[in-house]
Structure formats: structure tokens, C-alpha cells
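[Q] Does anyone have a clean C-alpha cell version of this?
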Amino acid sequence: MKLAKWLMLDGNFFLASEPILSHCNNGILYGDFFSFEIVGNSSKLFFPELFYENLIERCKIFNFDIEKIPSQLIFEQNIYFLLQKNRIYKSFLGIVTVFKNSRNLTSILISTEVMETEFYSLNKDGLIVDVLLDKPINKFLINTKEFQFLNYQKNFENYLSDEIEYLLIDDNSNIISTIDSNVFFVKNNDIFLPNKILENNIKIITDFLIDYIKKIGFKVENRDIRYSELDFVDEIFLVNIKYGIRWVSNYKRTKYYYHRVSKKIFDGFNKLLKDSIQNER
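[A] Here you go.
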């Protein structure tokens, strides 16, 4: 994927190739910023209400002036206008960065890029997962703002790989997530998530998916899941904003030969998204 030609800063267009932020910017000087991914199709956001709620919630957490944040309608319109300016008419990924500018006011920077597929596509080959045993995360850190919202996962960027997805664990050997995805486990048609999961914008798609899974008749439960249990589950699938649902085929010598449940969930989930876009046209 390639960053589109135009960016939007506070409702105004700027060329992505030109500098638009000063070195005196408070977001740069003091780290007063946060960012999150958005995704959609046909110039429409998936989960627009949830993305906007996430924006407002984070502004409150970081003590940003909410009065300077545009309404949900204007926020969606700005994204629509930016996509039209960049001639992106199908599936897109966007990055929304909110920061305090040089006048200590809240600013919003939006960038977009074209996604390779029109909607989410289920990975043809299963992913391989492993456990990051040498970097356990203190269980008291997991629920803090620093871990959930300040891109703490960037500490693990050296472990990002196209070949292996690394599972993060706490200091009691319980699974938390991968570096950029929440993890679902299937055993005897019951679905489990770790007690401690990523609460950043991945929570948007995670909560949406949990509600859908319950509606189609599956039991969903949060509980502590030790990495030693990976040998005994039937299926594993990962969820994030960028890729949607991805199924796992291997953990060390353990093979997960089937992804029947994750395939059923994926098909229904994608249909929901397609229908929501069609209904808005």
C-alpha cells in the first residue's frame, strides 16, 4: 500500500510530499498526540459511530479540548472529501493523528491509502504464531493508558514479521494479544478471549465481532489463557482493523487443520459490512 497524494489537516488539504508541521509543534516536542487506524469502502467508513466514540474517548483520556473536535457528521465528511481528492473510490485504510499544535489547540491530521482488496479477505494460508517468552508484560501495566493508547506495542516492532505473529504474555504466562491484534480461541465450538486484551482502536472491531458471534449462536467468554493451552485448542484467529479476521495454522509443532468456525464468522462479518455500505448508498 502507498500513501495517497493528499493529506487533510483540520479540514484543509495539503500535499503529503510537503512539510506541514513545525518543529515547535507541541505534539512533536512533548508527545501530546495519539493516532488510530480507520477503514472503509466506497468512501464510507466501517463502524463510523464506533470510530468517532473512540476519537472522543481518547481525547478525554489525553485531556484534549473536545470542543475543538468536529462533529461526527463533519468528521465523516472530511474523510469523504479527502478520499475524493485522492480519487480513492474503493477500499481504504486511514490514519487519524490527533495532537496539540503550536498554539496548544487540538488538531487532526488524516492520511489515507488504497487497500489491496475491496473488502476484508480471509488469508489463504494460515498464519504461524509463537510466544514472546523473553518479554513478559507486567499485569498491572496492561490496563494503563501508556500500554493501551500510547503505542506501547512499538516496543515490539522488531518482532513484526510477515512469517510469524508473536503472542504477548503477562508475567503469569497468560496470553494478552499479538503485537497488533486481539486473539480468539475456539474449543468445542466455544470461543474464548484473554481476560486482558488490547483496548485501543482494535477494541472497535473486537466488540463488533463479539456481538455478531453471540448473535449467530456461539458462546463467547473471557478468561485467563496460558500459552501452554495452545496445544489443545481447535482453532485460533486474530482480529485487527487493518486485516479483519486471519486464521492461524501453526504453533510450533501443533497444527490447526481446520478453520471452520473462523471461516463462518468471517463470511457473515464481511456480509454485514457489505450490506452496511450498500444501505448507505
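[Q] Thanks! Anything notable?
[A] Residues 127-280 form a domain with the D-amino Acid Aminotransferase; Chain A, domain 2 fold (CATH 3.20.10.10).
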